[in-house]
Amino acid sequence: MTDLDTFIAGLPKAELHLHIEGSLEPDLMFALARRNGIAIPYADVEAVRAAYAFGNLQDFLDIYYAGADVLRTRQDFHDLAAAYFDRAAADGVVHAEIMFDPQTHTARGIPFAAVIEGLLSACAEAEARHGMTSLLILSFLRHLSEEEAFATLAEAEPWLDRIAAVGLDSSEMGHPPEKFARVFQAARDKGLKLVAHAGEEGPPAYVYEALDLLKVDRIDHGNRALEDKALVERLAREGMTLTVCPLSNLKLCVIDAIEDHPIDHMLALGLKATINSDDPAYFGGYIADNYRAVAAARGLNRDQLATLARNSFTGSFLPEEAVASNLERLAKWLADNV
Ligand code: HPA
Ligand SMILES: [Zn+2]
């Protein structure tokens, strides 16, 4: 029998909640700053890491948007994503659905084309190097206006056949899903899948809005849904995937201690929870670190870990046949490794 760490790293899994800008490691931040001739307000990598102490989501977002300033060229976006794919492959990820925030870049004068072409070339390379499949999710910044979200969707038009879904991220409180109902409807009319961050800091009402007004296919986070019994029952009944991010929850003070993480309660309540890394460079770990952290803190067994991996495939936006072949691959791997 393999030890639990080896089991977790080898377990075939999909990552469904990953912000590519949040995978910018401090050493790459320095390398890109040097390459692009940009001054950054940190003396060294240790100073960057020391700055990553967050009291809430907004503390993190301020530092995360500042860090993204070193990303300027198509090559930078390629290198960022290539580094993520290498790390993810080592963690047993066979499929990744990657969010990117175009507005963080276009607002600084970076062409949309540079962002997406750099990411797409890294996606193709990940398939060739690691046999890893991937999809892109264009995420709107919810602190910006509906009009700006519509402009971003229009800018994405030439690449819509290479974008799987739209998402909604950034400052949750005060920016309810309702604000984006029309742009989500427009994205749905274009055949895109829909996801939204809801119930990370925001109340259960925001989760209801994501379901009823945005008509999302997945909820990103969803922790605060647990405060509402009827909502939990509905999410379970509808088989709604929740993309849960344990180390993010800890770093952003959604929970006080990893021992308090509700992942096993979510499974026991029949919720289709998955484990993801969110912004791994900022939150202290990639996807296998997230699995390991809750496995240790909550005493998860191999069946629970396998369920989480299974949920990651059935909750993905892959075509049915690809979901089926990933489930088969997982079943075979489990037969050899339990
Ligand atoms: O966890 C998050 N929440 C909201 N917005 C984000 N943008 C990157 N990560 C996050
Ligand atoms: Zn997120």
UniProtKB/TrEMBL annotation:
The active site is at residue 200. Binds 1 zinc ion per subunit. The record marks 221 as: Important for catalytic activity. Substrate binds at residue 279. Its cofactor is Zn(2+). GO terms for molecular function: adenine deaminase activity; zinc ion binding. GO terms for biological process: adenine catabolic process; hypoxanthine salvage; nucleotide metabolic process. CDD domains: ADA. The keyword Secreted does not apply. HAMAP family: Adenine_deaminase. Catalyzes the hydrolytic deamination of adenine to hypoxanthine. Plays an important role in the purine salvage pathway and in nitrogen catabolism. This is Adenine deaminase. It comes from Sphingobium cupriresistens LL01. The lineage of its organism: Bacteria, Pseudomonadati, Pseudomonadota, Alphaproteobacteria, Sphingomonadales.
